[in-house]
Amino acid sequence: METEKKLVLLVDDNPATLQTGKNVLSTAYRVATAPSAVKLFEILQTNIPAIIILDIDIPEVNGYEIIKVLKHRPDTKCIPVIFLTGKTDPDDEVFGLNLGAVDYITKPFQPTLLRKRIEMHLLVEAQKKKLEKQSIELEECYNDMTEGKTQRAIERVKALLENSKA
């Protein structure tokens, strides 16, 4: 059974960039596009993407302001954001990364590089979630041991080891 494609949300006010990005990414991902901050937040009301690709120079509300909002909302703060922008000044890149972006790609983008970076960041997110789950399970094992539930703790550890091999 094929797993459902992950949702990538591409935000840019340039229709050509949105179309090119959608063409490049749609073979591997479901792609939603938003030409503005308003449309982005409308989409987020009903869909939580695996990653957001965000232009900085968007009229009305720029990408820097958008990421500040995203990183302060409980439902969106953990979504990785990649800036995709025409800004090439290293200070802009550092500023964007300091705001919480996981990456910074300049336009015009190279399609293979964009796909690879998205793939890499989604893999990092999946590994992070797996580690968080294992940490919780290990804490439960520890609690079982301290409460004298040794056999239960041993069974949990065995299950953890089996799952880590998969």
Strand arrangement across the biggest beta sheet: 2-1-3-4-5
Number of beta-strand segments: 5
Question: Can you summarize the main beta sheet?
Answer: 5 strands, parallel
Contiguous helical run count: 6
**Domains counted in the coordinates: how many?**
2
Annotated CATH homologous superfamily of the largest domain: Response regulator
C-alpha-based Rg, rounded? 20 Å
**Secondary structure: helix percent:** 40-55%
The assigned structural class equals alpha/beta
Shape: elongated
Give the integer mean of the pLDDT values: 90
CATH architecture of the largest domain: 3-Layer(aba) Sandwich
The SSE order reads: EHEHEHEHEHH
List unreliable stretches of 5+ residues. Answer: none
CATH topology label of the largest domain: Rossmann fold
State which percent range the strand residues make up.
5-15%
> Span between N and C termini?
17 Å
Question: Which CATH class of the largest domain is shown?
Answer: Alpha Beta
